[in-house]
Design goal:
This protein is an alpha/beta fold and 232 residues long. Strand 9 and strand 10 form a beta hairpin. It has a single domain, classed as Metallo-dependent phosphatases (Purple Acid Phosphatase, chain A, domain 2, 4-Layer Sandwich), CATH 3.60.21.10. The strands form 2 sheets. Strands 5-6-7-8-10-9 form a 6-stranded mixed sheet. The protein contains 5 helices and 11 strands.
Length: 232
Amino acid sequence: MKIFAISDLHLSISESKPMDIFGGAWDNYLEEITANWRAEISDDDLVLIAGDISWAMTFEKAKPDLDYIAALPGKKVILRGNHDYWWKSISYMRANFPASIYAVQNDCLRFGDTLVFGSRGWVCPEGKQTAEDEKIYKREIERMKLCLSALNKMKKDGDRVIAMIHYPPFNSRRESSPFTDIFEQAGAESVIYGHLHGRGIRMSRVIELNGIKYYLTSCDQVGNKPVFIGDR
């Protein structure tokens, strides 16, 4: 099983929302994703998608976007992003997702000897936070702790651990955060995140901190090509 990752697809198949207004990286991006995905990935592989799946506001309108993802090869694990307003309860998602799509939300999933856990996260502070940001940040840390608890109940010797988070788990100075501390406690070897777009971002596509590789996988940052993480 090969493992790939990509995020921030921002699909709008049922209600056309042109993405090329955000720059040339979004020209024909869906066609490029489809071609690159089919060229690299088989049904035996695992693809991690770290949020911002669809612009839809309801699950019903997001269904064509989910069906598009489901029709692509591989098993897909998706995480809620800040724009996924269509996302309902995790029990509803799991009951209604197409067969090849799995949702992770404040918990952990097993695929063979690979464990995948994740939560949305929030903006890591550069300095003083607003009261609202601080409230959400602390809440998201607690949710990631739930992931760690679920992981620890499932983890066996020899398991590989991969974490997913939508927001970057550190600030632009790449300082440690409660999120990175949790990933280290979990024994994660890789962390997948997205959210960042455009030419002006101050983050490398892959960085290594304390033995963990962090992959920025927003589709416009990776040339609309799923990023190879490893195989088992």
